[in-house]
Design a protein that fits this description.
About 35% of the residues lie in helices and about 25% in strands. The protein has 15 helices and 21 strands.
């Protein structure tokens, strides 16, 4: 499942300037970084660095990590204990950061080590908070720190108030963040918005109120931000884990909704995709393939179309506005009829067909949606023509949608739609050859869904045969996917296979054939597979991504080769420029063809005298 928008939203929120007020005892946890052992992280970093030409030794990585904390391995920090960095709400502009250090002997060894390193103890409060300052020149994250002992955990912060608040929060923290890996990062969008929503909105309103901001742009920006804030209020947490194991870089994500929200209700409708439906798109030659279940999209439709309606009200009156309303009403109906299963595959491009795509959607009412689809196309066509006719100036291009004659294959109705880009005389000469001006789409209407083929109508009949003959190939049976997930999770809702290198090589090779370049040669050999899956868990869903370390290493080596070639070419150009300069200036000094002076070539004694009278033993000026 795609959760990057939620992650990006929280990242944006955490980077803004906020000024909330909090109670002194129980501030909300806004985010957390969790390192499952500094030694474990150092091991993963070493494995990852081995993909480069110059790997960093495990011990060197560990030394750098411990040095940030002002210590060294074996000096009081538990090597395999979980270190946490908490982001808490506070009276500070950007929240408060507190470290939870895993320590031996209740932190005594670690604190003694700081003392031996020159840290000075300022004072100790009545509740046991220590205040230490680092000596000048200390290269640590903080040099003025307050510590509070909590058994096997030592709390560290920039203020005594901060560590007290973190101590109050500790009992509410989960034993471990619910993702795999040696490091995990959690953000809590709903808590961030609850804390800082009014401040964010006030700052944005102020920005949009600038005199040079067009009213429509300001209104659209405000609507866009409010939509993101509304979505964030429904997400309790997003967690990402990262680790290196079994020759793979492993990424693990979890998204949990706020209970009782529309998002939570929608997540409850997700289920495994039907292997005999969406999987028909999983062709062996596909360079990207995904089958997933979208759940009950009618639950999300009201919020989405409410946003679209508000957007339409903001936009100035446009030709075809009435037709746009009709189009949106039809789109609402389409959403309500979607059954949830979805399949998508991208096939290698061809010279005449750079975009070759197949898609399958399960439907609740195929016959009704087939007629509605025709109406949607007609509305879109009329709206585009109306806008072009009343624009006042000749458009550089016009879009045209045209249905061909419907046909049947083995009793399955097939509609053909041609999407044309009609270029003006000015635009036609400069239009990129790699982008065709005409696309053909064929839609085959089954009793339970619709199959759409883009760019390669010849595929349609074979895919219809594949579906009718139950010759589907579940994506989970792909060798590359099975290798990445030998023991797959239960309740899967998404399977994804992406041959990154094959995809880049195919499209760059197509560009090379048209331009005479050799860009495809820069892509490493092999498919470059990236495999992903998502599955439902209690109160949320999770996603896993697997990337082979060998592929990462191949990318690094190709980048290094490109850098070396660029350096060699630069040196060659410099040599050529030097030769041209000599030819242009015959009086320029040139190097002697005799051997250059060398101390080893002279016969000086210890006093600098030479045994060759008459030979000047003074070295040339440029030898010093």
């Amino acid at each position: 499942m795609k959760i990057w928008n939620a992650l990006l939203l929280a990242a944006v929120l955490s980077g803004l300037a906020w000024s909330p007020a909090w109670s002194a005892e129980a501030p909300p946890v806004l985010g957390m970084l969790e390192i499952r052992g500094l030694d474990n992280l150092a091991g993963s970093a070493f494995e990852l660095s081995k993909t480069t030409a110059k790997p960093v030794a495990r011990e060197a990585v560990a030394l750098m990590l411990y040095n940030v904390l002002g210590t060294m391995p074996g000096m009081g920090i538990t090597p395999h204990g979980s270190l946490r960095v908490l982001l808490l709400g506070s009276d500070r502009d950007q929240g408060t950061v507190v470290l939870l250090l895993p320590v031996e002997n209740e932190g005594k060894n670690y604190l003694e080590n700081l003392g031996q390193a020159g840290w000075e103890s300022k004072k100790e409060t009545a509740d046991g908070i220590l205040h230490l300052t680092a000596p000048d020149g200390t290269c640590t994250a903080w040099t003025n720190v307050y510590f509070l002992k909590a058994g096997a955990t030592l709390l560290a912060g920039l203020r005594a108030k901060d560590v007290r608040q973190a101590s109050a929060v500790m009992p509410t923290l989960p034993p471990i963040l619910p993702v795999e890996g040696d490091a995990a990062f959690q953000i809590r969008p709903a808590a961030l918005v609850k804390a800082f929503g009014p401040q964010i909105q006030a700052q944005l309103d102020k920005a949009f109120a600038a005199p040079d901001t067009p009213p429509e742009a300001a209104a659209m920006g405000t609507l866009y931000v409010r939509a993101y804030l509304a979505a964030a209020r429904q997400v309790d947490e997003c967690v990402m884990g990262l680790g290196v194991a079994d020759g793979q870089l492993k990424l693990h994500f979890r998204v949990a909704p706020v209970a009782g929200t529309t998002f939570a209700t929608w997540l409850g409708t997700l289920k495994a995709p039907d292997p005999t439906a969406a999987s028909i798109i999983n062709l062996p030659e596909a360079i990207y393939a995904e089958t997933m279940n979208l759940g009950d999209l009618s639950l999300l439709a009201p919020a989405y179309f409410r946003y679209v309606d508000n957007l339409m009200k903001i936009m100035p009156a446009q030709p075809g506005a009435d037709m746009m309303k009709t189009y949106l009403d039809s789109a609402r109906t389409y959403w309500d009829r979607l059954a949830g299963d979805f399949g998508l595959a991208l096939l290698p491009p061809a010279a005449e067909q750079p975009l070759r795509l197949v898609e399958f959607l399960t439907l609740k009412d195929t016959s009704g949606l087939r007629e509605l689809n025709k109406q949607l196309v007609q509305n879109a066509n009329e709206m585009m023509k109306s806008m072009a006719a009343t624009n006042g100036e000749p458009a550089p291009f016009q879009l045209d949608l045209a249905f061909g004659e419907p046909r049947e294959h083995r009793g399955i109705g097939v509609d053909t739609l041609t999407f044309s880009i009609n270029l003006s005389d000015q635009l036609a000469p400069i239009w990129p050859k790699v982008i065709p001006t005409k696309f053909t789409l064929e839609s085959a209407w089954f009793s339970d869904g619709v199959l759409t083929v883009v760019g390669d109508p010849a595929l349609t009949d074979s895919l219809v045969d594949r579906a009718l003959d139950n010759a589907d190939a579940p994506l989970a049976e792909r060798p590359a996917w099975k290798a990445a997930y030998p023991d797959p999770d239960e309740n899967p809702v998404d399977y994804t296979h992406f041959a990154l290198f094959d995809t880049l090589r195919a499209y760059l090779g197509l560009a090379d054939s048209l331009s005479g370049t050799a860009l495809a040669a820069n892509i490493p050999e092999g498919p470059g597979n990236i495999e992903a899956t998502s599955y439902v868990v209690l109160n949320g869903f999770m996603s896993r991504i697997r990337i082979n370390l060998d592929d990462i290493g191949a990318i690094v080596r190709k980048a290094q080769e490109a850098q070396e070639k660029a350096m060699a070419e630069m040196m060659k150009q410099m040599d050529m420029q030097g030769e041209m300069q000599i030819e242009d200036d015959p009086d320029a000094p040139v190097e002697s063809e005799s051997e250059p002076w060398s101390p080893d070539a002279s016969n000086e004694d210890d006093n600098g005298a030479t045994d060759n009278p008459g030979v000047d033993s003074t070295p040339p000026a440029d030898a010093e």
